[in-house]
Specification:
3 domains; EC 5.2.1.8; 9 helices; Trigger_fact/SurA_dom_sf; two-stranded antiparallel ribbon; alpha+beta; signal; 248 residues
Amino acid sequence: MDNNNKLLAEVNGKKIYRNDVISFMHNIEGGARFQNEEGIKVLADEMVNQEIILADAYKNKLDDEDEFKNELKLVKDNMLKNYAMHKIFEAVNPTDDDLKKYYEDNKELISPNKTYTASHILVDDIDKANKIYEEIKLGLDFKEAAKKYSKDPSAASGGSLGTFPKGVMVKEFQDGLDSLEIGEISKPVKSQFGYHIIKLEDIQNEEPKAFDEVKEQVYQTYLMVKRQEKYLEKLKEISKNAEVKKYY
């Protein structure tokens, strides 16, 4: 007999098996510290106590109280939302051929053979951008200029965008990057976000990784993208039947 199927206790006819206690252990914070025979007994005692509390709650009809019913509805609604999302997502079940095709179609993003290290300063209008560009030309440190003027969250780190593959930035920004030599700073570049002053710090060229090397990454990326597509398709289908009022 499997030791994990061992019956440890009964409360009012409710059987508590070792498996139940182990599941309970895995679902409580710091449960790993009970991973010994004494710990199993402690948790089994606690499960017995909770069953006694539960029986008493039913006896006193706490489940009929409005406060409990409201809490139960919130829990049910959240579980149902998660289950509905699961039903949408379960349709995404890619084959190896699906993953290979996705890899070939998106190889540059999944396994980029060209990456950039860059910083930028983002402002709202061209006059301000030109003024900052001139200040930098006259000797203002780029990082200090970013901290002082940029409206982008990257300002706090001196405008640093880190290292990223080709194609993840908007076209105008990418075109600005491709016009620069390493160490060079661009004149203001307009995009949908405002005006960027870009500093190209480095370019790295590598051979793209083979599909088998990045298969798990391809799988996770595919799931994320295709699940989002299914989610948006479902919303488009059902939103016309919803009465929505937004006040923001």
